[in-house]
């Protein structure tokens, strides 16, 4: 199969992990004697440096991949990966006492108790401002050229605390409703666009296709990570912005109406009776076995489901379908949309590292032109070749001899996501056209105008916010499930709203509003 020619546009113009000897300031970050003169620095760094790296999403010791070997060869820095990263102050304290803090933390620092300012104040991670000036010229240049990104990745007082993972414009949308197109065709039904049309389709799936769970999904898709079906009612189960004011979706009248509808669907047997407890693998099984005809999930689910069914010789076609609206022809208020910087996969540097320069240099490589090309397209001569200055994927990616999907191959040779870098659109070829069409379908919402940017409450505000929201988060999730499953009545929802007020949600809204206004004034 011929390799696919791709457009290529860069966004840029341009040792031991033990924890003795805490770094107090940038002037004390000489590291080992092998540090190169900053003004004349070039990769790779000499000296055989090794750093430790902790990723919040990893468990155990991860497999070492070709991309890891390539990074080591280019930067001169070997990375020894540890297990999952802690998020609580208590876990950090235990690591500190054990001497087990890594050199580099990959974490969602916006969710750290007290916020990223608190992590710096407590002496766990370094404030990076001076270090960026000294050792991260590529990140610095990128931020100078993209002030909208610069605004996102610092706190209100201008503190840089991590190297960011920034999504590309198209990469901000990656999830939504998925449906069996072949079932729609067989039943002579159109792709559902409204809540009423979804009810008609799911009823047909139950009665005519004998689906035991016409729509299945995990609880994270109820209305918090995505708008799910809630977006049709003008709400989402989280904080968002409405006409310049921060609101909390669970307090809004539309959420009551949404829950009433979901409770009716559940009672009618349209929603998977096990949705409150199932995992992703079970959802996959139900979608590919014919137990379910629709779900809400990420883009790669479409490729995964189509591939799985094709492998069994069955005929099925999974496609993306729009987020539902209340009225045909109108856009739903919410779908799925991330900020370019959502805080995830952000790399901070331990205040106890012995080689801050090496950590900075290793992270800064992702923001060079060469690093960006590697993270996006992988290794030249292996996953792509340059033709007329443009990268063209090889058959290893496009027509893999082992039958691997292009995303599976690239996950070994590149960092296309969830890594501290500026993500580029890589136009990765999909085996099924439905996969490539999904984003344009899911992005048709009004979500952008409601998106709360990555605000940073002060350390004191963040502590107070965390105390309030721990109780409220537990309360709303339990209440939501009880209403949908018919254990509690949605008619009592006003009582639940008052309980949220009693738990302090108004104070949380005041904190979020103040942080939002400070963000706008950065």
TrEMBL record:
Top-rank taxon: Bacteria
Pfam assignment, any one: SBP_bac_1
Transmembrane segments: none
InterPro entries: Bact_solute-bd_prot1, SBP
Designated name of the protein: ABC transporter substrate-binding protein
């Amino acid at each position: 199969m011929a390799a696919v020619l791709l457009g290529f546009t860069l966004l840029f113009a341009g040792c031991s992990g033990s924890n003795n000897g805490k770094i107090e300031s940038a002037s004390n970050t000489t590291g080992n004697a092998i540090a190169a003169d900053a003004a004349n620095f070039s990769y790779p760094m000499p000296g055989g440096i090794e750093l430790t790296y902790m990723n919040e999403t990893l468990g155990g010791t991860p497999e070492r991949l070709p991309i890891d070997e390539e990074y080591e060869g280019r930067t001169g820095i070997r990375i020894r990966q540890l297990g999952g990263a802690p998020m609580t102050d208590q876990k950090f304290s235990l690591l500190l006492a054990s001497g087990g803090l890594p050199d580099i933390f990959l974490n969602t620092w916006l969710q750290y108790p007290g916020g990223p300012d608190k992590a710096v104040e407590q002496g766990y991670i370094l404030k990076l401002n001076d270090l960026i000036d000294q050792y991260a010229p590529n990140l610095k240049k990128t931020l100078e050229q993209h002030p909208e990104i610069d605004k996102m990745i610092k706190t209100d007082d201008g503190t840089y605390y991590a190297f960011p993972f920034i999504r590309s414009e198209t990469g901000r949308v990656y999830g939504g409703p998925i449906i069996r197109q072949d079932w729609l065709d067989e039943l002579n039904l159109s792709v559902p666009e409204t809540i009423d049309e979804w009810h008609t389709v799911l009823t047909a799936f139950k009665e005519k296709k004998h689906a035991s769970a016409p729509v299945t999904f995990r609880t994270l898709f109820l209305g918090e990570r995505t708008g799910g079906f809630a977006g049709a009612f003008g709400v989402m189960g989280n904080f968002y912005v409405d006409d310049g004011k921060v609101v909390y979706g669970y307090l809004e009248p539309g959420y009551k109406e949404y829950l009433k509808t979901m409770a009716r669907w559940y009672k009618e047997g349209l929603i998977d009776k096990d949705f409150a407890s199932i995992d992703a693998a079970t959802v996959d099984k139900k979608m590919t076995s014919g137990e379910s005809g629709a779900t809400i999930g990420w883009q790669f689910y479409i490729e995964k489901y189509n591939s799985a069914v094709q492998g069994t010789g069955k005929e099925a076609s999974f496609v993306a379908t729009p987020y539902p609206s209340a009225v045909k022809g109108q856009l739903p208020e919410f779908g799925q949309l991330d900020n370019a910087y959502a805080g995830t996969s952000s790399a901070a540097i331990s205040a106890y590292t012995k080689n801050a320069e090496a950590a900075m240099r290793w992270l800064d490589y992702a923001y060079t032109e060469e690093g960006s090309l590697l993270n996006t397209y992988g290794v030249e001569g292996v996953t792509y070749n340059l033709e007329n200055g443009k990268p063209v994927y090889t058959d290893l990616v496009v027509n893999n001899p082992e039958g691997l999907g292009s995303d599976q191959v690239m996950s070994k040779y590149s960092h296309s996501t969830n890594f501290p870098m500026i993500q580029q659109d890589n136009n990765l070829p999909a085996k099924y056209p439905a996969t490539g069409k999904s984003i344009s379908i899911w992005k048709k919402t009004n979500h952008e105008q409601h998106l709360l940017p990555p605000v940073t409450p002060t350390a004191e505000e963040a502590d107070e916010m965390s105390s309030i929201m721990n109780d409220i988060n537990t309360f709303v999730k339990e209440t939501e499930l009880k209403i949908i499953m018919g254990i509690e009545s949605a008619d009592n929802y006003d009582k639940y709203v008052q309980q949220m007020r009693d738990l302090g949600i108004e104070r949380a809204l005041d904190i979020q509003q103040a942080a939002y206004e400070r963000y706008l004034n950065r």
